[in-house]
Amino acid sequence: MDRDAIYNTWCDRLADLAHSGSISHDDLDPLPAEVWSVYAQFPSFHKISGSLASGIHDALAYQDCVTYLQKKYNLHPYHLHAIHLSGLQQFLSNMRPSPRATMVKLIYDWAPTYALLHKQNRSESPTCPRCKQHPEDSPHILTCNDMGATTWRDDYLSFFLITMRDHHMPIHILAVLEYKLSSALCLPFSRKYSPLMSLDNHIKNIVLSAIWHQNILGWDFIP
């Protein structure tokens, strides 16, 4: 079936479910001013109140997207559902177009590295022009042992941590960020933000949960 036919079949099925009374949710009932309401089951049960075509398409394509992401990033279904995708989307939406395009390219491994350009027959060699030892792909950019590249990463890590500190990031989280990112970026761990006191169990569990979720998102490239 073409896409329009799939839409029609999908809407008919939802309408039958709604009329049969099998769909009901106190917070999702039609508003008085709404002539009709369309509901989707994926990624969770919700009412599509605007951008109908886009909402229906997202619901129809949800399972295909899940399968694609699991295969591309070797994610277990549990890990995929644990990632705060709406927060990631909001983060990208708040960025200006140019840095957002760069961030998306890094996420999907589309950054114009020499390895990618060579694969596309747009560069004679895939080798990193700095260290001249390894293919320049996205992970290599963050781990290149060239002195200039290492200094550049160290400066930006320091700038990031100072910015987080100035925005009142708790010292315990700064210490974890320094440890994790130093390892991910192949930088010496300087311990500038070592915790000054021990955490109680409640706060410790919250921090460990945050670290675990960040590990799922992937802030390091260590196999």
Description of the structure:
With 223 residues, the chain is mainly alpha-helical. The protein has two domains: 3-82, no CATH class; 146-223, no CATH class. It is 57% helix and 3% strand. The chain contains ten helices and two strands; from the N terminus they run H-E-E-H-H-H-H-H-H-H-H-H. The chain has a two-stranded antiparallel sheet with strand order 1-2. The longest helix is centred in the first third of the chain and has 22 residues, at 52-73. The chain is globular. It starts with a helix and ends in a 6-residue tail after the last helix.
Quick rundown:
The chain is 57% helix and 3% strand. With 223 residues, the protein is mostly helical. The protein has a two-stranded antiparallel sheet.
Q: What's the alpha carbon Rg, rounded to whole Å?
A: 23 Å
Q: On the 0-100 scale, what is the average pLDDT? A: 79
Instruction: Please state the structural category.
Output: mainly alpha
Domain module tally: 2
Low-pLDDT runs = none
Number of strands: 2
How would the global form be characterised? globular
Strand order of the largest sheet: 1-2
N-to-C series of helices and strands: HEEHHHHHHHHH
Strand content: under 5%
